[in-house]
Design a protein that fits this description.
This protein has 268 residues and is α+β, with helices and mostly antiparallel strands. It has helices spanning 2-30, 51-56, 106-117, 140-151, 170-176, 216-226, 235-267; strands spanning 73-75, 81-83, 91-97, 122-128, 194-197, 203-207. A 4-stranded mixed beta sheet has the order 4-3-5-6, covered by helices on one side. Strands 1-2 form a two-stranded antiparallel ribbon. The radius of gyration is 29 Å and the shape is elongated.
Protein backbone atom coordinates (compact mmCIF):
# COMPACT_ATOMS: atom_id res chain seq x y z
CA UNK A 1 0.00 0.00 0.00
CA UNK A 2 2.78 2.35 0.95
CA UNK A 3 4.59 1.46 -2.27
CA UNK A 4 1.46 2.22 -4.30
CA UNK A 5 1.01 5.58 -2.58
CA UNK A 6 4.65 6.41 -3.22
CA UNK A 7 4.30 5.64 -6.92
CA UNK A 8 1.16 7.77 -7.16
CA UNK A 9 2.85 10.67 -5.42
CA UNK A 10 5.87 10.33 -7.69
CA UNK A 11 3.71 10.34 -10.82
CA UNK A 12 1.80 13.38 -9.56
CA UNK A 13 5.04 15.22 -8.87
CA UNK A 14 6.41 14.44 -12.35
CA UNK A 15 3.18 15.64 -13.97
CA UNK A 16 3.20 18.87 -11.97
CA UNK A 17 6.84 19.49 -12.84
CA UNK A 18 6.06 18.89 -16.52
CA UNK A 19 3.21 21.38 -16.46
CA UNK A 20 5.38 24.06 -14.85
CA UNK A 21 8.15 23.38 -17.37
CA UNK A 22 5.77 23.72 -20.33
CA UNK A 23 4.36 26.99 -19.02
CA UNK A 24 7.80 28.39 -18.32
CA UNK A 25 9.06 27.36 -21.76
CA UNK A 26 6.06 28.96 -23.46
CA UNK A 27 6.59 32.26 -21.68
CA UNK A 28 10.29 32.26 -22.45
CA UNK A 29 9.55 31.66 -26.13
CA UNK A 30 7.56 34.88 -26.27
CA UNK A 31 10.54 36.87 -25.01
CA UNK A 32 10.55 40.52 -23.87
CA UNK A 33 8.31 43.06 -25.60
CA UNK A 34 10.02 44.53 -28.66
CA UNK A 35 12.09 47.60 -27.90
CA UNK A 36 10.25 50.77 -28.74
CA UNK A 37 11.55 52.78 -31.65
CA UNK A 38 12.53 56.41 -31.18
CA UNK A 39 9.12 57.49 -32.43
CA UNK A 40 5.46 56.71 -32.07
CA UNK A 41 2.81 57.13 -34.70
CA UNK A 42 1.55 60.69 -34.92
CA UNK A 43 -1.04 60.54 -32.19
CA UNK A 44 -3.01 63.21 -30.46
CA UNK A 45 -2.56 61.55 -27.08
CA UNK A 46 0.40 59.18 -26.68
CA UNK A 47 -0.31 56.50 -24.09
CA UNK A 48 3.04 56.42 -22.29
CA UNK A 49 3.48 59.17 -19.72
CA UNK A 50 6.28 59.37 -17.18
CA UNK A 51 5.73 59.99 -13.49
CA UNK A 52 7.52 63.33 -13.83
CA UNK A 53 5.14 64.32 -16.61
CA UNK A 54 2.13 63.47 -14.46
CA UNK A 55 3.56 65.62 -11.68
CA UNK A 56 4.08 68.55 -14.02
CA UNK A 57 0.54 68.54 -15.41
CA UNK A 58 -0.71 70.91 -12.72
CA UNK A 59 1.85 73.54 -13.73
CA UNK A 60 0.76 73.70 -17.38
CA UNK A 61 -0.63 76.86 -18.96
CA UNK A 62 -4.36 77.58 -18.46
CA UNK A 63 -6.70 76.03 -21.00
CA UNK A 64 -8.39 79.32 -21.89
CA UNK A 65 -5.17 81.04 -22.95
CA UNK A 66 -5.41 81.41 -26.73
CA UNK A 67 -1.67 82.02 -26.97
CA UNK A 68 -0.71 79.24 -24.57
CA UNK A 69 2.02 77.78 -26.79
CA UNK A 70 3.65 81.21 -27.21
CA UNK A 71 3.41 82.51 -23.62
CA UNK A 72 7.07 81.88 -22.95
CA UNK A 73 10.31 83.82 -22.99
CA UNK A 74 13.32 81.88 -24.23
CA UNK A 75 16.95 82.77 -24.82
CA UNK A 76 18.04 82.57 -28.43
CA UNK A 77 21.25 80.89 -29.58
CA UNK A 78 23.14 84.15 -28.89
CA UNK A 79 21.86 84.40 -25.34
CA UNK A 80 19.32 87.19 -25.93
CA UNK A 81 15.89 86.79 -24.37
CA UNK A 82 13.09 86.44 -26.88
CA UNK A 83 9.37 86.66 -26.21
CA UNK A 84 7.68 83.96 -28.29
CA UNK A 85 4.54 86.11 -28.50
CA UNK A 86 6.34 87.93 -31.31
CA UNK A 87 5.48 84.91 -33.50
CA UNK A 88 1.74 85.19 -32.85
CA UNK A 89 -0.03 85.23 -36.21
CA UNK A 90 2.59 83.00 -37.80
CA UNK A 91 2.36 79.27 -38.27
CA UNK A 92 5.17 77.89 -36.08
CA UNK A 93 6.94 74.54 -36.16
CA UNK A 94 8.79 73.89 -32.88
CA UNK A 95 11.50 71.23 -33.08
CA UNK A 96 13.91 69.85 -30.48
CA UNK A 97 17.17 69.34 -32.36
CA UNK A 98 20.59 67.73 -31.91
CA UNK A 99 23.87 67.84 -33.86
CA UNK A 100 25.05 64.25 -33.42
CA UNK A 101 21.88 62.32 -34.10
CA UNK A 102 21.03 60.02 -36.95
CA UNK A 103 18.16 62.41 -37.69
CA UNK A 104 20.39 65.51 -37.81
CA UNK A 105 20.16 65.65 -41.66
CA UNK A 106 16.56 66.79 -41.13
CA UNK A 107 18.08 70.25 -40.73
CA UNK A 108 18.35 70.36 -44.51
CA UNK A 109 14.64 69.60 -45.00
CA UNK A 110 13.66 72.01 -42.22
CA UNK A 111 15.53 74.83 -43.94
CA UNK A 112 13.98 74.01 -47.32
CA UNK A 113 10.45 74.01 -45.88
CA UNK A 114 11.16 77.25 -44.01
CA UNK A 115 12.36 79.05 -47.14
CA UNK A 116 9.37 77.79 -49.12
CA UNK A 117 6.72 79.12 -46.74
CA UNK A 118 8.43 81.97 -44.84
CA UNK A 119 6.84 84.72 -46.95
CA UNK A 120 3.40 83.36 -46.07
CA UNK A 121 4.03 83.67 -42.35
CA UNK A 122 5.68 80.36 -41.50
CA UNK A 123 8.59 80.06 -39.07
CA UNK A 124 10.59 77.25 -37.51
CA UNK A 125 11.88 77.54 -33.95
CA UNK A 126 14.68 75.08 -33.13
CA UNK A 127 15.53 74.14 -29.55
CA UNK A 128 18.77 72.16 -29.10
CA UNK A 129 18.52 69.56 -26.32
CA UNK A 130 20.97 67.04 -24.88
CA UNK A 131 18.35 64.69 -23.43
CA UNK A 132 18.92 61.72 -25.72
CA UNK A 133 22.21 59.81 -25.41
CA UNK A 134 24.14 63.07 -25.11
CA UNK A 135 23.71 63.83 -28.81
CA UNK A 136 23.86 67.61 -28.33
CA UNK A 137 26.93 68.10 -26.09
CA UNK A 138 28.27 71.27 -27.71
CA UNK A 139 28.01 74.88 -26.55
CA UNK A 140 25.47 77.24 -28.11
CA UNK A 141 28.22 78.93 -30.14
CA UNK A 142 29.38 75.64 -31.64
CA UNK A 143 25.81 74.54 -32.32
CA UNK A 144 25.17 77.78 -34.21
CA UNK A 145 28.39 77.40 -36.19
CA UNK A 146 27.56 73.79 -37.06
CA UNK A 147 24.01 74.55 -38.24
CA UNK A 148 24.93 77.57 -40.32
CA UNK A 149 28.07 76.11 -41.91
CA UNK A 150 26.84 72.59 -42.63
CA UNK A 151 23.13 73.17 -43.29
CA UNK A 152 22.91 76.94 -43.98
CA UNK A 153 20.21 77.30 -41.34
CA UNK A 154 18.46 80.69 -41.33
CA UNK A 155 15.42 79.99 -39.15
CA UNK A 156 15.55 81.04 -35.46
CA UNK A 157 17.75 78.90 -33.23
CA UNK A 158 17.47 78.99 -29.45
CA UNK A 159 19.80 78.19 -26.57
CA UNK A 160 20.01 74.62 -25.29
CA UNK A 161 17.12 73.49 -23.14
CA UNK A 162 15.86 70.31 -21.52
CA UNK A 163 12.77 68.79 -23.13
CA UNK A 164 12.08 66.03 -20.59
CA UNK A 165 12.88 64.95 -17.05
CA UNK A 166 13.07 66.90 -13.81
CA UNK A 167 14.80 69.88 -15.43
CA UNK A 168 12.38 70.20 -18.36
CA UNK A 169 11.94 73.82 -19.46
CA UNK A 170 8.56 75.54 -19.07
CA UNK A 171 7.83 75.58 -22.80
CA UNK A 172 8.22 71.83 -23.18
CA UNK A 173 6.50 71.24 -19.87
CA UNK A 174 3.44 72.83 -21.49
CA UNK A 175 3.85 71.16 -24.89
CA UNK A 176 4.10 67.68 -23.38
CA UNK A 177 1.57 68.11 -20.54
CA UNK A 178 -1.49 65.87 -20.64
CA UNK A 179 -3.79 68.36 -18.93
CA UNK A 180 -2.98 71.68 -20.56
CA UNK A 181 -6.03 72.19 -22.76
CA UNK A 182 -4.58 70.52 -25.86
CA UNK A 183 -4.60 66.95 -27.16
CA UNK A 184 -0.94 66.53 -28.09
CA UNK A 185 0.67 65.78 -24.73
CA UNK A 186 3.12 63.01 -23.98
CA UNK A 187 6.87 62.75 -23.51
CA UNK A 188 9.26 63.77 -26.27
CA UNK A 189 10.34 60.47 -27.82
CA UNK A 190 13.67 61.52 -29.34
CA UNK A 191 15.46 64.34 -31.13
CA UNK A 192 13.50 66.15 -33.85
CA UNK A 193 10.03 65.83 -32.39
CA UNK A 194 7.76 68.44 -33.99
CA UNK A 195 4.87 70.56 -32.72
CA UNK A 196 2.88 72.66 -35.19
CA UNK A 197 1.39 75.86 -33.78
CA UNK A 198 -1.46 77.59 -35.62
CA UNK A 199 -1.84 81.32 -36.27
CA UNK A 200 -3.85 81.60 -33.05
CA UNK A 201 -1.00 80.32 -30.88
CA UNK A 202 -2.57 76.91 -30.26
CA UNK A 203 -1.05 73.50 -31.02
CA UNK A 204 -2.72 72.06 -34.10
CA UNK A 205 -0.59 68.97 -34.76
CA UNK A 206 2.36 66.91 -33.62
CA UNK A 207 4.78 64.76 -35.60
CA UNK A 208 7.18 62.07 -34.42
CA UNK A 209 10.96 62.45 -34.76
CA UNK A 210 11.32 60.15 -37.78
CA UNK A 211 8.59 61.96 -39.69
CA UNK A 212 10.56 64.13 -42.11
CA UNK A 213 9.80 67.86 -42.22
CA UNK A 214 8.88 67.64 -45.89
CA UNK A 215 6.67 64.55 -45.50
CA UNK A 216 3.30 64.85 -47.22
CA UNK A 217 1.30 64.92 -44.00
CA UNK A 218 3.52 67.63 -42.53
CA UNK A 219 3.23 69.82 -45.63
CA UNK A 220 -0.54 69.33 -45.71
CA UNK A 221 -0.80 70.38 -42.07
CA UNK A 222 1.38 73.46 -42.65
CA UNK A 223 -0.62 74.58 -45.68
CA UNK A 224 -3.90 74.04 -43.83
CA UNK A 225 -2.65 76.16 -40.94
CA UNK A 226 -1.40 78.87 -43.31
CA UNK A 227 -4.85 79.05 -44.92
CA UNK A 228 -6.32 80.36 -41.65
CA UNK A 229 -6.79 84.14 -41.39
CA UNK A 230 -4.09 86.15 -39.63
CA UNK A 231 -5.49 87.51 -36.33
CA UNK A 232 -6.03 91.26 -36.45
CA UNK A 233 -4.32 91.79 -33.10
CA UNK A 234 -1.19 89.84 -34.02
CA UNK A 235 2.31 91.27 -34.56
CA UNK A 236 2.26 89.73 -38.04
CA UNK A 237 -0.78 91.79 -39.02
CA UNK A 238 1.04 94.93 -37.87
CA UNK A 239 4.11 93.99 -39.90
CA UNK A 240 1.98 93.27 -42.96
CA UNK A 241 0.25 96.66 -42.69
CA UNK A 242 3.57 98.47 -42.25
CA UNK A 243 5.02 96.63 -45.24
CA UNK A 244 1.97 97.51 -47.35
CA UNK A 245 2.26 101.18 -46.35
CA UNK A 246 5.97 101.26 -47.19
CA UNK A 247 5.29 99.67 -50.55
CA UNK A 248 2.55 102.18 -51.26
CA UNK A 249 4.79 105.10 -50.26
CA UNK A 250 7.59 103.78 -52.46
CA UNK A 251 5.24 103.40 -55.44
CA UNK A 252 3.84 106.92 -54.96
CA UNK A 253 7.36 108.35 -54.69
CA UNK A 254 8.41 106.52 -57.85
CA UNK A 255 5.35 107.83 -59.74
CA UNK A 256 5.95 111.37 -58.51
CA UNK A 257 9.60 111.31 -59.56
CA UNK A 258 8.62 109.87 -62.93
CA UNK A 259 6.12 112.70 -63.51
CA UNK A 260 8.70 115.29 -62.48
CA UNK A 261 11.25 113.88 -64.92
CA UNK A 262 8.65 113.86 -67.65
CA UNK A 263 7.72 117.48 -66.90
CA UNK A 264 11.35 118.58 -66.93
CA UNK A 265 11.89 116.86 -70.26
CA UNK A 266 8.96 118.74 -71.80
CA UNK A 267 10.29 122.07 -70.56
CA UNK A 268 13.59 121.41 -72.25
Amino acid sequence: MMLRNGVVNLMFGVAAFGLVFVLATGLAAKGEPPEKSDQTKNSKRPKVVSQEQKTDDKEAAPVDDKLAALRFKMKDIDGKEQDLVQYYGNVVLMVNVASRCGLTPQYEQLEAVYRKYAERGFVILAFPANNFLGQEPESNDKIKQFCTSKYSVTFPMFAKVSVKGNDICDLYKYLTAMKAGHEYGGEIEWNFGKFLIGRNGQIVDRFSPRTKPDAEKVIEAIEKALAAPVPEDSPLTKKMKEAAEKKKDAEEKSDRESRERSSDAKKQ
